[in-house]
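REVIEWER CHECKLIST
Item 1: Sequence provided? yes
Item 2: Single chain? yes
Item 3: Sequence as submitted:
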Amino acid sequence: MEEVKLAFIPPTMHLGRYGPLTNMHLMLPQQLGVAPYSMHYMRFIAERDQFVIMDNGAAEAKPMSARTLSRLARVYMPSELVLPDVLADSKATIKATLDFFGPEGDWLQQPQDYLVQLGVVAQGTDWEEACDTVMELDRHVVPFKTIYLPRLLLQGDKYARVKAATRLHNTFGETYNIHLLGASSLWSTEVHAITETCPFVRS
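Item 4: Structure as written out by the authors:
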């Protein structure tokens, strides 16, 4: 059984201290204008044993436009890109994700785009609707590899992501990776439950 991986998001001043503790990293696009931050992640991206995920900024209350997100992804070429989403809104998330492949985001229109693994965010008002969001995107044949279960799902149900991960794994098997996007005060309880009941969760 593989261990659940941990992706750090250390503050800029602590990148050198905490960055080397893991080989999986979450990069916030809003911070890429800060030279130490961008240089740090460019170095990790260049190292083959490092896995860098570029977030879309939605949970930071500073979502990127599809055009800006696709431009940054093409500049930095992360291992994986979190596709656009709208917090707690299934329909808006589905639209934002699909629009990324249209004229606004223009993704998959350049050869290098295919080198970046994609992930969709399972948004919804609860974990069941979040699962429905993923199933709808799967029906649209969106070329994603990872399902991100957002921290927001934990509101009112500390085991919501455990339940969602279980249902999605039962539905899709090993087709998609599952990543818990964002930690909370319930982190230790949730991680214990995940490792005990959902060993298939990647990170």
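Item 5: Key structural point noted by reviewer: The longest strand covers residues 117-121.
Item 6: Recommendation: ____
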